[in-house]
Every structure is written in C-alpha cells, then in structure tokens.
Specification:
Blueprint (H helix, E strand, L loop, with lengths): L2 H18 L3 H12 L4 H6 L10 H31 L21 H15 L3 E2 L5 E2 L1 H4 L27 E2 L5 H9 L4 E10 L11 E11 L4 H16 L4 E9 L2 E10 L1 H5 L5 E9 L1 H7 L7 E8 H9 L12 H4 L3
Parallel strand pairs: 1-4
Antiparallel strand pairs: 2-3, 4-5, 5-9, 6-7, 7-8, 8-9
Helix pairs in contact: 1-2, 1-4, 2-4, 5-8, 5-11
The protein binds 3,4-dihydroxyphenylalanine.
The site of 3,4-dihydroxyphenylalanine has 11 residues, from strand 8 and strand 9.
C-alpha cells in the first residue's frame, strides 16, 4: 500500500479511538498510542525519509495535515471530557426545595435611628453630619463651655495625642456649630451620630454610644415649638399615648435649659411613670454670637438624646452592652 493510503487509514482509526475515549485518562492513553513519541502515526511519519524523492513533498504535506487534524481532535475531545467531569455525578432533583439564604437586617439601633430621622423629615428637618474626631473648639468652646468646665475633664473623654489636641466628640452638639458656621439661618437639622465618653461599660453605660442632635433656628422660635416637635416625634416613635414633660436643667449652650422626661405604657412596664430621655433648651445668645448669627434677630432651640436609651425602652432591653456584642441570637429578634 502506498504511504498516503496508509496514513489515511491510520488517521481514521486514530480519530475513531480518540472520539471513543470515555474519560481524560483514556484520552491521554489514546493520544500516546497514536501521536505520542512511540505512537503509530509517529512511526509512519518517520518513514517519510525513505520515500522516493518525488513523492516526499506531497506526503510531507499530508503528514502535517494529519498531525494537525489529530491534535485538534484531541483538544476537542478533551474539552468535552473536562466538561463532563465538571458536571454533577448524581442526577439533580429539581423538585427539592430551594436553599434559603438568611437575609440580614438592620441593627436595632439603626432601625430606631431611621425611624427618628423619618419623623423629623416629615416636618422639614434635614440630616447633617460632622467628624467624630473633633477639636476642643467645636466640642466645647463654641458651645459656651469654657476650659474649666467639668465636661472637659480629661476623665470625661478620649484625647488624641495630636498637636491640635483633638478628641473623640463627647456629644453631637459639636455639629450644631459646624453647620451654623457654614450656612446662614434659618437652620433645621438633625444629626445622628456616634459619640464617646470615658465610661466603664455597665448595664446603662458604654464608652461609645449614639445620639441624635436637633437644631432649629429661625425668627420667633419658642419653647412651645420645641415641646410640640419633641412630642410629635416621640408619639410617632413610642405610640400616641406618650406624654412628655420638661424639667428645668442646666446646659451651658442653652438658656433656659430643660431635661425631657416621657411617660408611656413602655415606661410603666419598666416600673416607672417618667423616664428621662433628652436634654434641650433655647440656643444661648453667646452661641449665636460665636457663629456670627445676630442673637437680636435669630432665636432657636436644640436638643440631644441617646439612641440606645430610646431603643432600650422601645424593645424592653435591660442591658445596653447587648447592642455591641453582635450576638446573632440577640440581633435576629429585631
Ligand atoms: N449634649 C448634651 C449631652 O450630651 C445633650 C444636649 C442638651 C444637647 C441640650 C443639646 C441641648 O442640643 O440643647 O448630654
């Protein structure tokens, strides 16, 4: 038989065997048997040199085509077998129920914050923001809290070892100043945010906690505006029966100043008629002077309260530390 006929026959057998390989090992074996160094096709190709000179060009050309064709066939079969190996061995039962991924939820403190923000938005308040790493000026001086005020005691907050004596803000009231410095009145903002104090953690204290600050500046603003606003928001948050009362208090950046107590079915459940919830007052004229607002023209009120406190009352939680432990058994209840 001629060389060309031989090679054509070998090719057909090789293709059939490669195509029949049932797995990758069988394929590798077939590949070796045909086009490996000791393969049958390889052996035939080695005979090229023994052909008469005039037959060699055509035979060489066909040989190259055959080699190429067989290599392509190996690659194609390898692709099929690899895909087959990757598919699941067991048949799939499409009637099985789907696997549910547990859906995450907002942290209870975030839920309370969002509810409070939503209530304030309804009455035209915008959310403002400020740095947690604050300077003494915005945290204290500008809020009419002089250097000898106890709130500035080293024990009361965390000072950072920077040249400008930065500190972790002790309250969100610093953002009142930052907002008023930047914009002319009127102002209607709330500021949810994290604050820091040098407290030892216990049932009702944690060195990091969250507050919401409110600031309203306009002409002819009065305490009754403050009371009405606070009442509206707390009734939305804790139910329509909620009552609030103001008790005289002292804050250096408001005059007069009050503490806000509230009373509801929730406080009674905790064994108390009234629970203290916030500090507030009419913005002190000195604060307006400091930020460049004319205290003869502008009036305003401000308040600040702790979000944890509200959340504890709302959900009947008796230990503030539960909010920070990230125990999924606790968090998944909200
Ligand atoms: N900054 C006060 C605190 O952390 C709360 C507060 C009281 C905020 C009176 C105010 C205010 O804006 O007017 O305890």
């Amino acid at each position: 038989m001629s060389f060309l006929a031989d090679i054509e026959q070998l090719k057909q057998s090789a293709l059939a065997e490669l195509q029949a390989a049932v797995d990758l090992a069988a394929l590798d074996q077939a590949k070796g048997a045909w086009i490996g160094p000791h393969g049958k096709v390889t052996a035939l190709l080695k005979q090229l040199g023994t052909l008469p000179k005039e037959e060699r060009p055509a035979a060489g050309k066909v040989s190259n085509q055959v080699k190429q064709e067989l290599e392509t066939a190996v690659a194609a079969r390898r692709g099929e077998l690899e895909l087959k190996a990757a598919l699941p061995k067991e048949p799939i039962d499409f009637t099985l129920p789907g696997r549910r991924r547990p859906l995450g939820k907002l942290h209870p403190l975030s839920q309370v914050t969002e509810d409070i923000v939503r209530s304030f938005r309804k009455i035209g308040f915008a959310v403002a923001d400020g740095p947690e790493m604050e300077d003494e000026y915005h945290c204290f001086d500008a809020l009419n809290t002089p250097a000898d005020h106890p709130a500035r005691d080293l024990q009361d907050t965390f000072y950072l070892t920077t040249e400008e004596r930065l500190l972790l803000r002790t309250h969100t009231s610093s953002v009142q100043i930052r907002v008023m410095e930047k914009q002319p009145p009127p102002v209607r903002i709330i500021v949810p945010g994290r604050v820091y104090r040098r407290d030892n953690p216990d049932q009702t204290h944690n060195p990091t906690f969250q507050q919401i600050e409110g600031l309203y500046v306009d002409k002819n603003v009065t305490v009754s505006d403050l009371k009405g606003t606070v009442e509206f928001v707390f009734r939305e948050l804790l139910g329509p029966e909620t009552k609030i009362r103001f008790r005289p208090h002292y804050f250096s950046y408001t005059e007069p100043s009050f503490e806000i107590d509230f009373s509801s079915a929730l406080t009674r459940k905790m064994g108390r008629e009234w629970l203290e919830i916030a500090g507030c007052g009419m913005v002190h004229p000195q604060v307006f002077e400091t930020v460049g607002y004319d205290p003869e023209v502008w009036t305003g009120w401000a308040f600040g309260f702790g979000i944890e406190r509200v959340a504890m009352i709302r959900y009947g939680i008796n230990d503030v530390r539960l909010f920070y432990e990230n125990d999924i058994r606790f968090l998944s209840q909200f």
